[in-house]
Amino acid sequence: MEDQLAELAAQVAAIEAKGNMTNTMFAEAYYYITIPLMIIIHAGFLAYEMGASRAKNALSSGVKNILAFAFVTPAFYFFGWWVYWAFPTGFPLSAGPNGISGAEYAASIALGWGESSAYMGPNLADQIDGVFWGAFTLFAATTASIMSGAVIERIQTVGFVILAIILGGFSWTLAAAWGWHADGWMVINWGVHDFGAAGLVHAVAAFFTLGVLINLGPRIGKFNADGSANDIPGHNLPFTATGLMLIIVGFWGFLMACLVVGGEAWSWGANFANIYGTPTNLGALTFNILMSIAGGIIGAWIMTRDPFWMMSGALAGIISCASGLDIYFPAMSLTIAFGAGVLLKPAANVIEKMGIDDAVGAVTVHGTIGIYGMLVLGIVASGYPAALGEGAPVTSFTGQLVGAVVFIAIGLITGYVSSLILKMAGMLRVPEAAEIAGLDTVKVPAQAYPEGIAVSPPASN
Predict the structure, then answer these.
(1) Residue 116 exposure: Cα atoms within 13 Å on the Cβ side
(2) pLDDT digits 0-9 by tens, 70-129
(3) Residue 292 to residue 111: CA distance in whole angstroms
(4) What is the pLDDT of residues 35-73, one digit of tens each?
(5) Which of 144, 191, 220, 331 supports an S-S bond with 393, CB 3.0-4.6 Å?
(6) 19-443 falls under which CATH superfamily?
(7) How far apart are CA 250 and CA 323, in angstroms?
(8) Which runs of consecutive H residues, i.e. helices, occur in 53-156?
(9) Domain residues of the chain, as ranges?
């Protein structure tokens, strides 16, 4: 009998081990897939920004976007990942209640040398950390792409790259450590809930961008002497609209990566959860993403009839619901996103009247709407558990407001200060003559349209 029991126990243990390995392999494949999906976001930003530029600046806008991706990746490897694990409890770098934070923990995971090389390099025994890091790296690169469109046609390439490294390697990562981590002080103390990163990715990037735009100044010809604004249309609206749709496609990967996949590698079992450990699943995302896209488009269409703002409304719809995509009901997502679509163009007009030249409306779409989404969640989801475990804090409007203020401050302060330093060093804005001639002419050894742009002949009577 004892031999039979021992054999049965061994069989059960083998089955459990096989199941854990299957779950772990699924988690690895899951995050691996999110990475190329998120790269589609960058293909979208590339098309979006080149189309939104005048023909004389199309390639320079694209070069800037490509470089942001290239430089943020190593910046996040060597520095940003450490920030995420070191800073959740604040600047003392102490460990939080879950023991997955602090300077000592970060050194064991994120620095890529010594014992931590097992986590930050090829390791056949480690199937999770590389792809999980890759997903976070694409979040970092997305923040730089958000900034990229707003500053087209007048920013220096090197200055932009420096700003992208600061934003993707530090600013958003600090926000994530505080508000998107099980040990984050804003989660533990205030119950901040930002599942899809409306605040800690989108708003941080947008207000960082606003700080840069204040120092960068408007494009030549944007504003008249009386303060009124002139429209400076891009040269290829279909390209821009297609780019926005590609961003929407890539958003599915972005939001997939906001889920934590259950398995041997994680502490909360075999189910899907959000970054805070509370349960959700892909079904919740599917319902709510589609409804938020629809609501944003409808709201923007009613207000503008403009295809640019309609597609921007799709993006704004997702961002407005991103904080609560894991818990909303579909009709709620549709309603919230509709409100975002309605607010979009009026909010952009307000920013323009302040003398800010945001070439693609990035501050509005990602910043204003990101904050709107966080605060709406604080109203409709008040009382929802903000983290896993007994005595965990609950979501509230006050907590969401605290989170929104902190995210705005992180973005605006770091963006303004870093761009001011670059401005003082003469590294922020291109010379006036170069801007008038077109950045492709003076900065890029190629032509976007070497045979010229085809112009339709006037219609005959």
Answers:
(1) 16
(2) 999 999 999 999 999 999 999 988 998 888 898 888 888 877 665 666 677 777 777 778
(3) 38
(4) 999 999 999 999 999 999 999 999 999 999 999 999 999
(5) 191
(6) Ammonium transporter AmtB like domains (1.10.3430.10)
(7) 17
(8) 58-75, 81-86, 103-109, 129-150
(9) 19-443
